[in-house]
Design a protein that fits this description.
The chain has 321 residues and is an alpha+beta fold. It has one domain: Neuraminidase. Helix content is 23%, strand content 38%. It is built from 4 helices and 24 strands. The strands form 6 sheets. Strands 1-24-23-22 form a 4-stranded antiparallel β-sheet, with no helix packed on it. The chain has a 4-stranded antiparallel β-sheet with strand order 2-3-4-5, with no helix packed on it. Strand 10 and strand 11 form a beta hairpin. The chain starts with a helix and ends with a strand.
Length: 321
């Protein structure tokens, strides 16, 4: 009888175990319902794993920000790409595209140095300047014929204006304003002018020869992000004008043939360096040009955030800040 009872108990135990195993296979989480401590441990483990992963991401982000800040704080000049072509002039737009003047042609290259398009005409002589302030409406200036040609981003002609025929036969330093109009210096009236793309006067300064007591010989005009034009004169320095062409100040940086404006500072190349001089004359910076480049460069052209150098192998493009 005892044996029968033991066999019955053993059979009952096996049946219960088999039922529990079958139930677990159907729902592996079912056993947790009757074990609150197991559920708590599982939740704690998941929270720990999540927090650990989150902390790793936060630490990685902090390290990246610290590295980027330290890199940005350095005044550096970094090589980007080369274009195996000779050029008479070079510049870049704010998208990183490069533009080269080569004889009668202007060529566009993307931000990796690959050729994009070309524009050419021999009816206006050789272009003396290309303005890419607005990369969607590029201006080519043909100083000999006093003509501005406007191109789209593919260097397809949009139109042109002969400013001599518009009654302005002696303009120099034509450049594009932030609002799509033009800045120019009129050597006849000695006035700084704002023109629309058709060559009509919108604004004019006082005769600058009277204001400064001498004839000016401007070498470069730049628009300061819509705050007014800056104009360089070898003897006077860089003249700063407000949007209504009133002279507000003059920097003491003289003998410049060209300059760019960055962070409200006059930026130019001098003795193997890129110099950045504020209008007030305090707190200037110097960005060294790499020694190997300074030794091999035949010509250099400065753009906002970019330096182009003509070498025996072609044009090298650098980023600077």
């Amino acid at each position: 009888m005892s044996n029968s009872f033991e066999k019955a108990a053993e059979g009952s135990t096996k049946k219960s175990a088999s039922s529990a195993s079958s139930a677990f296979q159907k729902n592996p989480r079912s056993h947790l319902r009757s074990h609150p401590r197991s559920i708590t441990n599982q939740r704690s483990l998941r929270s720990y794993v999540y927090l650990r992963s989150l902390m790793r991401k936060v630490v990685a982000f902090i390290v990246f920000c610290a590295f980027w800040t330290s890199l940005s704080a350095q005044d550096t000049c970094v090589y980007l790409f080369s274009i195996p072509k000779k050029a008479d002039f070079g510049t870049t737009d704010h998208l990183g595209n490069a533009y080269l003047l080569r004889g009668f042609e202007v060529e566009k290259y993307d931000s990796t140095g690959h050729f994009v398009s070309r524009f050419s005409t021999n009816r206006l002589g050789v272009p003396t300047y290309v303005d890419v302030y607005n990369p969607l409406k590029i201006m080519l200036w043909y100083g000999e014929f006093q003509t501005a040609v406007f191109l789209d981003r593919n260097l397809t002609e949009l139109g042109r204006v002969n400013l001599a025929q518009a009654g302005l036969p002696a303009l120099r330093c034509l450049t594009v304003a932030a609002d799509g109009n033009l800045w120019a210096y009129d050597e006849v009236s000695t006035q700084l002018l704002k023109l629309n793309p058709a060559g009509q006067k919108l604004l004019e300064s006082q005769p600058l020869a009277l204001e400064f007591g001498r004839q000016l010989a401007p070498t470069c005009i730049r628009d300061n992000s819509g705050q007014g034009p800056w104009m360089s004169d070898p003897e006077l320095g860089v003249l700063v004008f407000d949007p209504y062409l009133r002279n507000s100040s003059t920097t003491l940086v003289k003998n410049l043939q060209s300059f760019v404006i960055q962070s409200d500072m006059t930026c130019f190349i001098e003795k193997g360096n890129i110099r950045m001089e504020p209008v007030q004359g305090l707190g200037g910076k110097t960005v060294p040009i790499p020694g190997n480049l300074a030794n091999k460069a035949q010509k250099t052209w400065l753009a906002a955030g970019a330096l182009l150098a003509l070498t025996d192998a072609g044009v090298e493009v650098y980023h600077w800040h």
